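Progress against Task 2.4 (sequence-to-structure conversion) is shown through the following example record, which the project officer requested during the mid-term review.
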Amino acid sequence: MDARDDPVVWNAWYPVGAPTDIRRQHATRTRLLGHQIDLTIHKTWISAACEGRPLPVTERLGYVWTTLGRPDGPPQSLLEYYEVDRVTMNIWSTPIKCSGLRIIDNVIDNAHFPFVHPGILGDAAHPDIITAEPIIDEGGTLWLPSQRAWLPLTQSVAEYTYRIADPYTVILYIHRPQSPGRHDFLGIFAQPVDEENFIAHKMFAWVHENWMDERRLKSDQQWISVQDKYVLERHTEKRLPLAGLESSVSVDVGSLAYRQWLRDKGVRYGAVQ
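Structure tokens generated for the chain above:
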């Protein structure tokens, strides 16, 4: 379908790359919602255009964001990203052959951790998942609070909260028990190239600790993403079914809430009704 026929998707903001990567690779062309985006690299900023039409551009959360439509406001924010004691980086920006909605659905699925990411995000000896009721706030953002799963790194149960403000983005809040009220963050921002292809941009913003090896952290996160990419590209249906076609169980409360949220917003681009 033409993305223009899906106002929620057309009028959203999307990342088109990390500014350091765009400059280093001199990446002056990319695609978004089936359209070519031309990037111009200036000394202190990067501009974007589509078929000669200048597009609004802003830099936020380590990425250059643009939109083909008319959004209600700026891209979503995360003020904690800019705290001085954080390690922030772009984990990767890589193409994946399926709908960008698929990766959001995958990220919020804690049940796959022991089987797709054994020894990293879970293990088969601790498959239990604790979920809580989804919440939609006054601004229409979907929150999946207090999702708990076993984390081998700490040999304890970790608590996660997911924030979905736009169909193609999710920010993961990793609760820090040693620092109540603070979180580490992972952001997954999908740049839909078309309905069945996207570029995955993964943002990392952790509170710095002395034991951290930034290269190892990035490598571990990239390995998790490679495992997810392998699974995502092997779905028979490349787009995300919003009802039927795929079976769900009670532990899929996050996925079911996300798909219902998409239906309620009338999202069709990258989805199967």
